[in-house]
Amino acid sequence: MFRYVHTNIIARDYTKLIQFYKEVLHCKSIGESRDLKGKWLDELTGIQEAHIVGEHLCLPGYGEDHPTLEIFSYDSMYDREEALINTYGIAHLAFEVDDVEVTLKEILKAGGGQVGGVVTADYPDKQAVFVYAKDPEGNIIELQSWKVRELNN
């Protein structure tokens, strides 16, 4: 077997960030909360007395056999520099939404931010609306909405 399982975000405040992803981006609790510690975790992370708490959330649009968004906090964490769209590593999480501008307003109202402008891009048979936003902890989120073009005869 080979399949994608989850993406992890380490949060300053996992409870607030979990609530944001549930309320604004329609992720769902699936009963997979975690309170992890022990020798195995110390060996896995390379951190002495590591302790992680958080939850796995079902991503919107998926059923029982789904990848999750894992939002955890460690007891001891380091600050990082601001996430930028053009830095190495994982750049963003993408969500397809019904209305990019409405969802962006919800993100801003919930304490998130906006990276660039809302844009429309034309494809041969579709039109897309995109924007990069940030969750309340600065992680970048891409919002996208797609419409099929009507063909003129």
From TrEMBL:
Signal peptide annotation: none
SUPFAM superfamilies: Glyoxalase/Bleomycin resistance protein/Dihydroxybiphenyl dioxygenase (SSF54593)
Origin superkingdom: Bacteria
Domain VOC intervals: 3-146
Gene3D superfamilies on file: 2,3-Dihydroxybiphenyl 1,2-Dioxygenase, domain 1
Name of the protein described by the UniProt record: VOC family protein
Species for this entry: Anaerocolumna sedimenticola
Phylogenetic classification of the source organism: Bacteria, Bacillati, Bacillota, Clostridia, Lachnospirales
